[in-house]
Design brief:
Layout: E1 33-37, E2 61-65
Antiparallel strand pairs: 1-2
Bound molecules: zinc ion (ZN).
């Protein structure tokens, strides 16, 4: 179709100015969230196959929503 408006905007969001890991629920510093030990690697940051933990990107921590209820 002829819809070309704003086309490049979505592409810029792919892993640039954002420190979120795949396991994060929110960017660091977001109100109502906090760091938690990564449930996948138990905070070691290592994947069982010897690589970086895919959930926390090797940090051993993930950002999760807290105090929801
Ligand atoms: Zn992890």
């Amino acid at each position: 179709m002829g819809n070309t408006t704003n086309a490049p905007r979505e592409m810029a969001a792919a892993g640039t100015s954002n420190d979120m890991s795949p396991g994060d629920e929110a960017p660091p510093g977001t109100p109502g969230t906090g760091e938690n030990i990564c449930p996948t690697c138990s905070g070691s940051g290592a994947s069982p196959d010897g690589g970086e933990c895919p959930t926390c990107s090797g940090t051993g921590k993930v950002v999760e929503a807290i105090g929801g209820a």
